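Incident log, structure service

09:12 report received: a user says their structure output differs between two submissions of the same chain.
09:20 pulled the input from the user's history:
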Amino acid sequence: MKLSKKIVYLLAFLIFIGSLGLFTLSADASEIVPATNKVPFEERYYQLFDVGLTWDEARVHAQSLGGDLVAIRNVATQSFIEKLVQRGNKTEYWLGGYHIATSGANQFRWVTGESMNFTNWWPNEPNNLYYGNGLWENRIVMSANYGRWNDISHMGLC
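09:34 re-ran on a clean worker, output below:
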């Protein structure tokens, strides 16, 4: 099987998330220094990062490296990602899903533009909770311990 050059990134964040030690921060924490380890799965490469960013910042960073946040399309990919993040030491990781603002309905889409035909939400999620000041739960994280998904604000740090 030939692997494409497509790279998918899981960006972990200091408040919620863990890492496989696949990158380090520079001494002054001003830049992310990615390692060369990329894990292949189904013609894509996956790489975990551990840095405190909002969802939007995490996506920009992944795109700057030629990839994007992860889109989980099926059980096989879910299982692979669960095993990958369980090696880390944090509790949650950003996924590449976002809420579509349509009359308050809980509709999410992947950064690839695809609809979510496969999901693994915690019970009673997504709930699109409103925090006030215009902040809604509109992005998705995966629990490293259980592989379940939850919607949280895009302004949170993971």
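09:41 both user submissions now match this output. Likely a transient worker issue. Closing.
09:42 reviewer note: The radius of gyration is 15 Å. The chain has two helices and eleven strands.
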